[in-house]
Protein backbone atom coordinates (compact mmCIF):
# COMPACT_ATOMS: atom_id res chain seq x y z
CA UNK A 1 0.00 0.00 0.00
CA UNK A 2 1.40 3.36 -1.07
CA UNK A 3 1.55 5.98 1.66
CA UNK A 4 1.79 9.66 0.83
CA UNK A 5 2.61 10.60 4.43
CA UNK A 6 6.24 10.62 5.55
CA UNK A 7 6.78 8.61 8.73
CA UNK A 8 7.20 10.67 11.88
CA UNK A 9 7.85 9.95 15.54
CA UNK A 10 5.28 12.62 16.46
CA UNK A 11 1.75 11.13 16.46
CA UNK A 12 -1.50 12.86 15.60
CA UNK A 13 -1.03 13.65 11.93
CA UNK A 14 -4.61 12.82 10.90
CA UNK A 15 -6.16 14.96 13.62
CA UNK A 16 -3.78 17.87 13.02
CA UNK A 17 -4.23 17.72 9.26
CA UNK A 18 -8.03 17.53 9.42
CA UNK A 19 -8.28 20.31 11.96
CA UNK A 20 -5.87 22.56 10.04
CA UNK A 21 -7.53 22.00 6.67
CA UNK A 22 -11.00 22.46 8.18
CA UNK A 23 -9.95 25.71 9.86
CA UNK A 24 -8.43 26.96 6.60
CA UNK A 25 -11.46 25.84 4.61
CA UNK A 26 -14.10 27.68 6.65
CA UNK A 27 -12.11 30.86 7.34
CA UNK A 28 -10.29 31.35 4.01
CA UNK A 29 -11.49 29.11 1.18
CA UNK A 30 -15.26 29.44 1.72
CA UNK A 31 -15.26 33.30 1.83
CA UNK A 32 -12.95 33.50 -1.20
CA UNK A 33 -15.03 31.10 -3.29
CA UNK A 34 -18.19 32.95 -2.25
CA UNK A 35 -16.66 36.18 -3.51
CA UNK A 36 -15.53 34.53 -6.75
CA UNK A 37 -18.97 33.01 -7.35
CA UNK A 38 -20.66 36.36 -6.73
CA UNK A 39 -18.29 38.24 -9.04
CA UNK A 40 -18.82 35.83 -11.94
CA UNK A 41 -22.52 36.72 -12.01
CA UNK A 42 -21.40 39.37 -14.44
CA UNK A 43 -20.26 36.69 -16.89
CA UNK A 44 -16.79 35.89 -18.14
CA UNK A 45 -16.81 38.59 -20.83
CA UNK A 46 -18.06 41.17 -18.36
CA UNK A 47 -15.41 40.03 -15.88
CA UNK A 48 -12.68 40.60 -18.46
CA UNK A 49 -14.04 44.03 -19.38
CA UNK A 50 -14.07 45.03 -15.72
CA UNK A 51 -10.49 44.01 -14.97
CA UNK A 52 -9.12 45.35 -18.28
CA UNK A 53 -10.52 48.79 -17.51
CA UNK A 54 -7.76 51.40 -17.85
CA UNK A 55 -8.45 52.82 -14.39
CA UNK A 56 -8.18 49.38 -12.78
CA UNK A 57 -4.95 48.52 -14.61
CA UNK A 58 -3.44 51.91 -13.77
CA UNK A 59 -4.32 51.48 -10.09
CA UNK A 60 -2.87 47.96 -10.17
CA UNK A 61 0.41 49.21 -11.64
CA UNK A 62 0.65 51.99 -9.04
CA UNK A 63 -0.07 49.53 -6.20
CA UNK A 64 2.45 46.99 -7.48
CA UNK A 65 5.21 49.54 -8.07
CA UNK A 66 4.86 51.26 -4.69
CA UNK A 67 4.58 47.94 -2.84
CA UNK A 68 7.63 46.56 -4.63
CA UNK A 69 9.76 49.65 -3.93
CA UNK A 70 8.69 49.70 -0.28
CA UNK A 71 9.43 45.98 0.10
CA UNK A 72 12.93 46.46 -1.36
CA UNK A 73 13.63 49.30 1.10
CA UNK A 74 12.27 47.19 3.96
CA UNK A 75 14.44 44.26 2.90
CA UNK A 76 17.62 46.35 3.01
CA UNK A 77 17.04 48.34 6.17
CA UNK A 78 15.09 45.54 7.86
CA UNK A 79 18.16 43.33 7.48
CA UNK A 80 20.33 45.99 9.14
CA UNK A 81 17.89 46.32 12.06
CA UNK A 82 17.47 42.56 12.45
CA UNK A 83 21.25 42.02 12.36
CA UNK A 84 21.79 44.72 15.00
CA UNK A 85 19.11 43.30 17.31
CA UNK A 86 20.28 39.70 16.90
CA UNK A 87 24.06 40.13 17.03
CA UNK A 88 24.80 43.07 19.31
CA UNK A 89 24.04 44.33 22.78
CA UNK A 90 23.63 48.09 23.14
CA UNK A 91 21.89 50.70 25.25
CA UNK A 92 18.19 51.04 24.37
CA UNK A 93 18.00 47.68 22.58
CA UNK A 94 14.74 46.71 24.28
CA UNK A 95 13.17 50.04 23.37
CA UNK A 96 14.18 49.61 19.74
CA UNK A 97 12.91 46.02 19.80
CA UNK A 98 9.52 47.22 21.05
CA UNK A 99 9.36 50.03 18.48
CA UNK A 100 9.78 47.50 15.66
CA UNK A 101 6.43 45.95 16.59
CA UNK A 102 4.66 49.31 16.94
CA UNK A 103 3.18 49.27 13.39
CA UNK A 104 1.43 45.99 14.29
CA UNK A 105 -0.49 47.65 17.13
CA UNK A 106 -0.88 51.13 15.68
CA UNK A 107 -4.00 51.71 13.54
CA UNK A 108 -2.96 52.35 9.95
CA UNK A 109 -5.13 55.47 9.80
CA UNK A 110 -3.12 56.96 12.68
CA UNK A 111 0.08 56.15 10.82
CA UNK A 112 -1.28 57.86 7.69
CA UNK A 113 -2.23 61.01 9.59
CA UNK A 114 1.18 61.14 11.31
CA UNK A 115 3.04 60.69 8.02
CA UNK A 116 0.89 63.30 6.26
CA UNK A 117 1.83 65.85 8.94
CA UNK A 118 5.47 64.81 8.58
CA UNK A 119 5.37 65.36 4.81
CA UNK A 120 3.51 68.67 5.01
CA UNK A 121 5.34 71.87 4.10
CA UNK A 122 5.56 72.74 7.78
CA UNK A 123 6.56 69.18 8.74
CA UNK A 124 10.09 68.10 9.55
CA UNK A 125 10.61 65.96 6.45
CA UNK A 126 8.56 68.19 4.18
CA UNK A 127 10.48 71.32 5.21
CA UNK A 128 13.82 69.54 4.77
CA UNK A 129 12.97 68.24 1.30
CA UNK A 130 11.56 71.64 0.38
CA UNK A 131 15.06 73.10 0.69
CA UNK A 132 16.04 71.02 -2.33
CA UNK A 133 12.88 71.97 -4.24
CA UNK A 134 11.16 68.63 -3.63
CA UNK A 135 7.51 68.97 -2.63
CA UNK A 136 6.98 65.73 -0.71
CA UNK A 137 3.33 66.43 0.00
CA UNK A 138 2.53 66.46 -3.73
CA UNK A 139 4.72 63.47 -4.57
CA UNK A 140 2.20 60.69 -4.04
CA UNK A 141 4.59 57.91 -5.07
CA UNK A 142 7.15 58.96 -2.46
CA UNK A 143 4.50 59.39 0.24
CA UNK A 144 2.82 56.05 -0.45
CA UNK A 145 6.18 54.25 -0.45
CA UNK A 146 7.02 55.87 2.89
CA UNK A 147 3.72 54.70 4.38
CA UNK A 148 4.22 51.16 3.07
CA UNK A 149 7.76 51.09 4.45
CA UNK A 150 6.37 52.02 7.86
CA UNK A 151 3.77 49.24 7.96
CA UNK A 152 5.94 46.58 6.28
CA UNK A 153 9.18 46.91 8.24
CA UNK A 154 8.20 44.55 11.12
CA UNK A 155 7.52 41.68 8.71
CA UNK A 156 11.09 41.70 7.43
CA UNK A 157 12.74 42.27 10.81
CA UNK A 158 10.77 39.57 12.63
CA UNK A 159 11.35 37.08 9.82
CA UNK A 160 15.11 37.60 9.63
CA UNK A 161 15.89 38.09 13.32
CA UNK A 162 15.50 34.44 14.52
CA UNK A 163 17.43 33.14 11.51
CA UNK A 164 20.29 35.56 12.20
CA UNK A 165 20.34 34.50 15.88
CA UNK A 166 20.78 30.87 14.79
CA UNK A 167 23.43 31.76 12.21
CA UNK A 168 26.48 29.51 12.50
CA UNK A 169 29.56 31.61 13.26
CA UNK A 170 31.86 28.78 12.23
CA UNK A 171 31.11 29.49 8.55
CA UNK A 172 32.21 33.09 9.05
CA UNK A 173 35.38 31.96 10.80
CA UNK A 174 36.09 29.46 8.04
CA UNK A 175 35.70 32.15 5.38
CA UNK A 176 38.10 34.45 7.25
CA UNK A 177 40.65 31.64 7.64
CA UNK A 178 40.48 31.02 3.88
CA UNK A 179 41.34 34.68 3.25
CA UNK A 180 37.92 36.05 2.33
CA UNK A 181 37.42 39.76 2.94
CA UNK A 182 34.31 41.35 4.43
CA UNK A 183 32.37 41.71 1.16
CA UNK A 184 33.24 38.20 -0.04
CA UNK A 185 32.07 36.77 3.28
CA UNK A 186 28.90 38.83 3.15
CA UNK A 187 27.89 37.96 -0.43
CA UNK A 188 29.00 34.31 -0.52
CA UNK A 189 28.35 33.17 3.06
CA UNK A 190 25.84 35.41 4.84
CA UNK A 191 23.41 36.19 2.01
CA UNK A 192 22.95 32.59 0.76
CA UNK A 193 22.20 31.45 4.32
CA UNK A 194 19.64 34.19 4.92
CA UNK A 195 18.09 34.31 1.45
CA UNK A 196 15.06 32.02 2.14
CA UNK A 197 14.09 34.05 5.21
CA UNK A 198 14.74 37.29 3.32
CA UNK A 199 12.43 36.19 0.50
CA UNK A 200 9.74 35.33 3.05
CA UNK A 201 10.04 38.75 4.70
CA UNK A 202 10.00 40.45 1.32
CA UNK A 203 6.86 38.54 0.29
CA UNK A 204 5.06 39.41 3.54
CA UNK A 205 5.97 43.10 3.30
CA UNK A 206 5.00 43.19 -0.37
CA UNK A 207 1.65 41.51 0.24
CA UNK A 208 0.93 43.78 3.20
CA UNK A 209 1.66 46.86 1.11
CA UNK A 210 -0.41 45.66 -1.82
CA UNK A 211 -3.56 45.50 0.27
CA UNK A 212 -2.93 48.58 2.41
CA UNK A 213 -5.64 51.23 2.49
CA UNK A 214 -5.82 53.03 5.85
CA UNK A 215 -2.48 54.83 5.83
CA UNK A 216 -2.27 55.41 2.07
CA UNK A 217 -5.61 57.18 1.78
CA UNK A 218 -4.29 60.10 3.84
CA UNK A 219 -1.06 60.53 1.87
CA UNK A 220 -1.83 59.76 -1.75
CA UNK A 221 -3.68 62.31 -3.85
CA UNK A 222 -5.74 59.36 -5.21
CA UNK A 223 -5.96 60.83 -8.70
CA UNK A 224 -7.28 58.24 -11.21
CA UNK A 225 -4.70 57.08 -13.79
CA UNK A 226 -1.95 58.74 -11.72
CA UNK A 227 -1.79 57.97 -8.00
CA UNK A 228 -4.79 55.79 -7.22
CA UNK A 229 -4.26 52.45 -5.50
CA UNK A 230 -6.37 49.40 -6.22
CA UNK A 231 -8.11 49.24 -2.78
CA UNK A 232 -9.35 52.81 -3.38
CA UNK A 233 -10.93 51.66 -6.64
CA UNK A 234 -12.74 48.89 -4.74
CA UNK A 235 -13.96 51.28 -2.02
CA UNK A 236 -15.11 53.84 -4.61
CA UNK A 237 -17.17 51.17 -6.38
CA UNK A 238 -18.74 50.15 -3.06
CA UNK A 239 -19.59 53.77 -2.26
CA UNK A 240 -21.30 54.05 -5.65
CA UNK A 241 -23.25 50.83 -4.86
CA UNK A 242 -21.48 48.90 -7.61
CA UNK A 243 -20.98 45.83 -5.44
CA UNK A 244 -20.56 43.50 -8.38
CA UNK A 245 -17.82 45.66 -9.88
CA UNK A 246 -16.09 45.90 -6.48
CA UNK A 247 -16.15 42.11 -6.11
CA UNK A 248 -14.68 41.67 -9.62
CA UNK A 249 -11.78 44.01 -8.83
CA UNK A 250 -11.36 42.27 -5.47
CA UNK A 251 -11.10 38.86 -7.12
CA UNK A 252 -8.64 40.28 -9.65
CA UNK A 253 -6.52 41.62 -6.78
CA UNK A 254 -6.65 38.24 -5.00
CA UNK A 255 -5.50 36.41 -8.15
CA UNK A 256 -2.61 38.82 -8.77
CA UNK A 257 -1.49 38.68 -5.13
CA UNK A 258 -1.69 34.88 -5.05
CA UNK A 259 0.33 34.47 -8.25
CA UNK A 260 3.05 36.81 -7.01
CA UNK A 261 3.24 35.15 -3.59
CA UNK A 262 3.24 31.70 -5.20
CA UNK A 263 6.13 32.73 -7.47
CA UNK A 264 8.14 34.00 -4.50
CA UNK A 265 7.38 30.83 -2.51
CA UNK A 266 8.43 28.72 -5.50
CA UNK A 267 11.74 30.57 -5.77
CA UNK A 268 12.25 30.16 -2.04
CA UNK A 269 11.60 26.44 -2.33
CA UNK A 270 14.10 26.14 -5.17
CA UNK A 271 16.72 27.83 -2.98
CA UNK A 272 16.09 25.31 -0.21
| Outline type | globular
Q: Indicate the CATH architecture.
A: Orthogonal Bundle
Whole-angstrom Rg: 22 Å
The structural domain count equals: 1
Order of helices and strands: HHHHHHHHHHHH
CATH class reads Mainly Alpha
CATH superfamily: MetI-like
Q: Indicate the structural class.
A: mainly alpha
What does this structure look like?
InterPro entries: CysT_permease, MetI-like, MetI-like_sf, Sulph_transpt2. The complex is composed of two ATP-binding proteins (CysA), two transmembrane proteins (CysT and CysW) and a solute-binding protein (CysP). It is a multi-pass membrane protein. The chain crosses the membrane at residues 20-44, 56-84, 104-132, 139-157, 186-206, 213-234, 246-267. It comes from Helicobacter turcicus. It is a single chain. This protein is mainly alpha-helical. It has a single domain (39-271), classed as MetI-like fold (Orthogonal Bundle). Helix content is 75%, strand content 0%. The chain is built from twelve helices and no strands. Helix 1 (13-39) packs antiparallel against helix 12. The longest helix is centred in the N-terminal third of the chain and has 34 residues, at 54-87. The chain is globular. The model has no long low-confidence stretch (mean pLDDT 82).
Give the topology, please.
Blueprint: H1 13-39, H2 44-51, H3 54-87, H4 93-100, H5 102-105, H6 108-119, H7 124-131, H8 140-165, H9 169-177, H10 182-210, H11 230-239, H12 243-271
Keywords: Membrane, Sulfate transport, Transmembrane, Transmembrane helix, Transport
Domain ABC transmembrane type-1: 60-265
Protein name: Sulfate transport system permease protein CysT
Amino acid sequence: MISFVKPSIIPGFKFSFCFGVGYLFFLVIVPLFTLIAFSFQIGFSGFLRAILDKQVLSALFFSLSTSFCAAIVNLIFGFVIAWSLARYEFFGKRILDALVDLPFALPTAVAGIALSFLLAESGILGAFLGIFGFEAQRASFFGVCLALVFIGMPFVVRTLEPVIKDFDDSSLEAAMCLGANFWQTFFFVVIPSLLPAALTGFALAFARGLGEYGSVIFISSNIPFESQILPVVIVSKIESHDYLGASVVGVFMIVVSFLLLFAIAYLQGKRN
